[in-house]
Amino acid sequence: MFGFLRRKKRKNEAAEVHDDTPQDLNAAGSGGDDTATPAEPIAENDQPAPSPAASALQTDRPAESADAGAPTATPARDDDAGRQETDTESPSPDKAPAVAAPKPEQSGSLFSRLAKTRSGLTEGLGDLFLGKKQIDDDLIEELETRLIMADVGQATTAALIDELTDEVSRKHVNDPEHLFETLYRLMVERLEAVQPTEPPARRQSGRPHVMVVCGINGGGKTTSIGKLAHRFKAGGRDVTLAAADTFRAAAVEQLISWGERNDVRVIGEPGRGDPASVAFDAVSSAKARNSDLLIVDTAGRLHTQSGLMDELGKLIRVISKAEPEAPDEVLLVIDASIGQNALVQARQFNQAVKLTGLIVTKLDGTAKGGIVFAIADELGLPIHFIGVGEKAEDLRPFEPRAFVDALLDRQPD
């Protein structure tokens, strides 16, 4: 079941229990009889509460135990509270402290990393679905609004709503909770339909696998390349990086720093002005050194800058001259927090250089996340990796079902 539905149910059940609880537990002792004695307050251990005099004596004197052989205990004073808390937390030297299991939000799982992204879509859905006994026009309209607000896009949202209403009309869906389960299935199917059958950066026979990474400035392009180098190097791959982003100041130095950190070769140096020549040299060097993976960084550019977009096309043509079957992949890095503008970027880059996939970054922030469905629907582009944090390990392979589970707050019962 979806987590927000479980939480809403628990909240409603707790409210019902609270409503059934008598409001005045002492009312039975006073019910209209002026001579009745009010009931004495009962302490937590079901013993009568001590009188004020007894309480004053107990402040300076140990309390008597019910068991004659049991040791007496002195209640802690206010000035001893800090010392008592410290003593309680300190484990005995001959007994190792128990290690508590990490909470989901502390575990670094995809579900916890997408908490902010998830809230943009599921906030209020508990009220929406549990407050309804049947599917009506208002429910469908509210769901449509929430999908659009989550950056799913007008066209994709309309397609999803059409499929849902068709399921309802065919009597395949007959209640709100089942409606949301159907939405979950449709979203997973959309992403799975465009995912590649082979893993990205697969090994080639006798030559390097060439991956060109492009995107606008600020989207996380060079950082994503450094994280890719870390991942593939840890997986036993021989990785070479090409610093072909000669347009942005310090971009080459940034990639060289990632190369040093991950112990991988970087072709290119500060001051070189022709990115295509850097890419050509990188392919030649990777082939000569028998490197099996070459990742090419390119200059960040806006999709509206036709001159720079033409230059990107030139760079890819030069790579093809150095290795006829390359590039094997052209990946676009998009920032999920920019919403529908990411779809415009993907559309323009795809027209210029024919993309093969996406890297979606910054999903651990306030990004809505719905844009991936719009891109998959319109362009048929798969998502290879998603960025959900600052660490190198936080660039993760994309898994459609796990992503939709985290986005819609769906966990096993």
Provide a concise account of the structure shown.
With 413 residues, the protein is of the alpha/beta class.
Characterise the protein shown here.
This protein has 16 helices and eight strands. With 413 residues, it is of the alpha/beta class. Helix 9 crosses helix 15 (371-379), helix 10 runs parallel beside helix 11 and helix 14 runs parallel beside helix 15 (371-379). It is elongated. It has helices spanning 3-20, 52-60, 81-89, 110-113, 115-122, 125-130, 137-149, 154-169, 176-194, 221-234, 251-262, 275-288, 306-322, 340-353, 371-379, 400-407; strands spanning 209-214, 239-244, 265-267, 293-298, 329-335, 357-361, 383-387, 395-397. Mean pLDDT is 76; it is low at 21-107.
Topology at a glance:
Elements: H1 3-20, H2 52-60, H3 81-89, H4 110-113, H5 115-122, H6 125-130, H7 137-149, H8 154-169, H9 176-194, E1 209-214, H10 221-234, E2 239-244, H11 251-262, E3 265-267, H12 275-288, E4 293-298, H13 306-322, E5 329-335, H14 340-353, E6 357-361, H15 371-379, E7 383-387, E8 395-397, H16 400-407
Parallel strand pairs: 1-4, 1-5, 2-3, 2-4, 5-6, 6-7
Antiparallel strand pairs: 7-8
Helix pairs in contact: 7-8, 8-9, 9-15, 9-16, 10-11, 12-13, 14-15
